[in-house]
Design brief:
heterodimer; A: about 110 residues; mainly beta; five-stranded antiparallel beta sheet; about 0% helix; B: about 110 residues
Chain lengths: ~110, ~110
């Protein structure tokens, strides 16, 4: 079963605008990760935030984590058409670090 | 290409047939994971290896599914007596430590 829920399910914006995607989860976690998936392809790791971190940046990406609310957000600034993809949050809640539990994803469309 | 590779990329089979997929992880990675992804959903964990030992299996992995990782290098996932519900993308990932997982392009299985 899916632990995470992404919001919104679909997001359509114009190139240059910012895109914000949210993720909620149910259990305590070790870390939370965001992945991108282009249609029909494998997943690409974007960024990892540990449970003791509140915010992390990587290039045009900004991730926040609120463990009290069991939620995370991914902000993509100055979006480009090439950012069009599905974005998934994944939580690592296992003791062995053996599994990631993915949400259902947000489909982002950036219009040129 | 030093990423995770999967073979075949596409497989069409008739219900009741057996199929086998192969995953070659990044060479220095000792952790290997299998996930299944159906259309419009996030990946779901199937099983995990550390070196050659299969340490965790999801309850999604029924008796018809078996995975191996002989010698701790490549891995195979076999599905016996395929059913239409097995149609999905089968993703393999590898990692060196418990954090970022690197995904292959996936094998898309269609059971007719």
């Amino acid at each position: 079963s899916q632990q995470g829920e992404e919001d919104p399910q679909a997001l359509s914006i114009q190139e240059g605008e910012n895109a914000t995607m949210n993720c909620s989860y149910k259990t305590s976690i070790n870390n939370l990760q965001w992945y991108r998936q282009n249609s029909g392809r494998g997943l690409v790791h974007l960024i990892l935030i540990r449970s003791n971190e509140r915010e992390k940046h990587s290039g045009r990406l900004r991730v926040t984590l609120d463990t009290s609310k069991k939620s995370s957000s991914l902000l993509i600034t100055a979006s480009r058409a090439a950012d069009t993809a599905s974005y998934f949050c994944a939580t690592d809640a296992s003791t062995s670090g053996s599994r990631l539990t993915f949400g259902e994803g947000t489909q982002l469309t950036v219009n040129p | 290409d030093t990423g995770v590779s999967q073979d075949p990329r596409h497989k069409i089979t008739k219900r009741g047939q057996n199929v086998t997929f192969r995953c070659d992880p990044i060479s220095e990675h000792n952790r290997l994971y299998w996930y299944r992804q159906t259309l419009g959903q996030g990946p779901e964990f199937l099983t995990y290896f550390q070196n050659e030992a299969q340490l965790e299996k999801s309850r999604l992995l029924s008796d018809r599914f078996s995975a191996e990782r002989p010698k701790g290098s490549f891995s195979t996932l076999e599905i016996q007596r395929t059913e239409q519900g097995d149609s999905a993308m089968y993703l393999c990932a590898s990692s060196l430590v418990r954090y970022e997982q690197y995904f292959g392009p996936g094998t898309r299985l269609t059971v007719t």
